[in-house]
Amino acid sequence: MCWKLSPFVVSFYGEYEQTAKADGRYLLVNIVKEKGKNLMKHIYLNLKRFDVPVEFGGVNRLAPVADWASCIVKNTQEELKTYDPTEVEFGMYFPEVHLLNAVAAKTEGSPVQIGCQSVFRADTAVGGNFGAFTTNRPASAMVAAGCETTIIGHCEERNDKAGILAEAGVTDTDAVNRLLNQEIKCAIERGMKVLYCIGEKSEEQEQWQEVLGKQLEIGLKDVDTSKVVIAYEPIWSIGPGKTPAGKEYITKIAKFVKEKTNGMDIVYGGGLKQDNAEMLASIDEIDGGLIALTRFQGEIGYYPEEYLEIIRLYMGRENNK
């Protein structure tokens, strides 16, 4: 039990929440920040379509497709349980076909938050649309399947939307941001957390402030940002043969985002991996990262043990496997 904290203690330790008990005492339920520094880290995993077997051109050497999602959850959640849930959270974004298996694989106390890869910009409603969403993912269906979080605005989703709009003669990138804003609202209205991705292409680098500023301003318009974490993707530096964004550049972007959003959490979305985990952990303005592939040479793909090693490195546990 904890007694009510004095103003001195509050000013020293920072923000906290307390719940009054019947006898007049207070239970301390959460300390969320050190003075001036965010304690919570966010580690996300975007599994894209890494479920496709090698014989079909994919990178799945991990398990048969029917067992793939459960294999990932079962081979990671026990070690993830050893981390303090007040210090770090873990989200995994699966293709829709694997969501039920992923949820079913969770054991008691599992810290894994199962997520989907975006939601549709409209949803079901009592007395309204009861399910006419062929090929789409309404947020209601995702929550009913067990999703707690979703990734929206990933550069691959942005490219897809921009390509469709271009077929109709629309080249205004603000239109993509408006569509993503609708998706974010639908997800939050259903109680989901959102990882919202932003980033600039090589041809947009000179206007990076304008590009990222619009993605934030339009994408987050009228949104409850307490339910959102930003992921920064330096699209110009992602891919074979490209030079990865450096610490100085990432720090510059992270500071810009925090200034524009009044201090929202931001993770590095350009690929948290073994090569950059310690560097990213050293940036005060970065609150975590987005993992995708864990192996980039030889039998490339996603492998649970390598995923756990990346997290150990980022969280400073590289010598405590």
Explained architecture:
The chain has helices spanning 7-13, 68-74, 77-80, 99-104, 139-144, 155-167, 173-189, 208-219, 247-261, 277-281, 304-315, and strands at 16-20, 26-31, 33-34, 37-38, 41-46, 88-94, 112-116, 149-152, 193-198, 228-232, 266-268, 288-291. It is of the alpha/beta class. Strands 11-10-9-8-7-6-5-12 form an eight-stranded parallel β-sheet. Strand 3 and strand 4 form a beta hairpin. It starts with 6 loop residues before the first helix and ends in a 6-residue tail after the last helix. Mean pLDDT is 90; it is low at 1-36.
Keywords:
single chain; 321 residues; alpha/beta; eight-stranded parallel sheet; two-stranded antiparallel sheet; 11 helices; 12 strands; globular; disordered N terminus
